[in-house]
Amino acid sequence: MTIVLELPFTGSWLVQNSPAERVPSHGTDRLGSRYAIDFVAVDERHRSASRRTWRTLLASEPPELFHAFGRPVLAPIAGRVVRAHDGEPDHEARRSQLTLIPYALGQARRLAQGPAAVAGNHLIVEITPTGPYLALVHLRRGSLRVAEGERIGVHQHLADCGNSGNSTQPHLHLQVSDRLDLGTALGVPILFRRFTETRRPGTTAQVRHNALPTERAVIGPAG
Q1: Residue 162: its pLDDT value, please?
Q2: Which single residue of 59, 62, 212, 223 could bond 55 by disulfide (Cβ 3.0 to 4.6 Å)?
Q3: Ranked by mean pLDDT, which of 19-33, 54-68, 95-109 comes out on top?
């Protein structure tokens, strides 16, 4: 079974941890993440933030500095919301190696705290009454626009991108799994129906259909 999705955003987003390059895409099958994919909003020069300061090299940075923070997250498929978790803080972003090292050392502790500590604010959508289940992860605190039990339509504005949970800078993590319990869930393969893909700034975008975007490509709606 492969689930075909629409893009969950407008504008340009950089692809990271694409299952087109490796499976499991995040290096683990835990929490149903075997075919998960990450998206980071970028500008026309493919930058995730428009400026760099001394904090970029030596410290953490406010999430508001990044293009992804606060961007609308859209429903990539119709379904019913079965989990809507909010209230987790949007923490500082980390591009500096000085801050990434201690953050990486805390990974085991976050995993031990359970899915909410890893996913942060998130939505899980039941695609059919028997599954599978779409997860949209690392959402901005207070931005959820839907509630558990609510039916949603494709392209509906569900929440905003944030930096909650296990996230080093604002981005959207998307995955589909076979069951609601992330502790036992198995990942389900995904494709995206139609999108543009660009490898380098200033180059011609390629339109792709029913495909997975490649690692480090910048993608967007095909119109």
Answers
A1: 98
A2: 59
A3: 19-33
Is the per-residue pLDDT at 101 higher than 80? no
| Burial of 82 per CB tally in 10 Å (0-12, 13-18, 19+) | middle
String of DSSP letters for 54-107:
HHHHHS-B-GGGBTTTT-EEE-SS-EEEEEEE-------B--SHHHHHHHHHTH
Coil/strand/helix, residue 44? coil
Q: How far apart are CA 196 and CA 179, in angstroms?
A: 31
Residues 6+ apart with CB under 8 A from 216: 14, 15, 16, 199
| Structure tokens that stand for 160 in this block | 């905003």
User: Taking the model in full, what pTM does it have?
Assistant: 0.91
**pLDDT category, 53, cuts 50, 70, 90?**
low
